[in-house]
Amino acid sequence: MAHPPPARLRPRILKALAPILALVSLAACSPQQMVMRSVADELASQGQSAENDLELAREASAFYLKFSESVLRPQPDHAGLAAAVAGGFTQYAYAFVAFEADRIEATDAKAAQRLRERAARLYRRGRDHALTALELARPGFRQALADPAAPAALRTEQLALAYWGAAAWGGMISLSKDDPDTVADLPLAIHLAQLAWRLDPSFGDGNLASLMGSFEMARPGGTRARAEAYFDEALRLGQGRSAGAFVAKAEGIAQPAGDKAAFLDLLNQAVAVTDAPASPLALANEVMRRRARWLIESADDLF
Prior knowledge:
303 residues, 15 helices, globular, Serine Threonine Protein Phosphatase 5, Tetratricopeptide repeat
């Protein structure tokens, strides 16, 4: 269930550390809880990165995730940081672990399987942070997900939590085909994405729409026509600036249909996406351009 992750991999650690260290230095004269809350606020508010060096991003992301998770652990109800951590684990799993598994599958199937198992664990970790924050904000939330008719409306500040929780859940399910209990949770993941969709269909400039398209293709009774409408909405919202929207439609619609020409056309459009200086989409676009190039090279094996 490939879908493009928005640009939330955050290698801007040096920028983050200065205000964080300043806050920590106040610990002697401030209550610890207040200091930790301020640190969490600072981590959650870090802007999207204009970084396009994937190796640098990968190294910085691991530090950011571990540090942010340690700050989140004593305050799991911090919606902003929980969403950032959930998104970080989801994107790290997608961009650096699951993709590597796809890349080496043909030459080392066992190593690829180990990587997919690791990616599934990272997706689960991200999902659990999002669901924990949602459950703390509204006890019984997860139980309500099992009932599509249950009143489980989201508040605006919970939108990112719902998106990242659903995206991580979908990624985990897609890598757990041999685990019936995990696969059985697909309706819950879809319901969570639907709650986000009802609140703001434009979330992520098309990323939520792409996720909805992926879920539509995966769910029992889903239709290609409706999925394609979601992917086309993602392209419209991306306004040609999101390489991920093109890759999502290529993998979600053209590949299952056996339409190699459309598949390659969409991927070439993804590769052609250029980023404005300091664009917050730079990192996500570079991740998806890399995937698009690999898919183009692998097209003969895929069709």
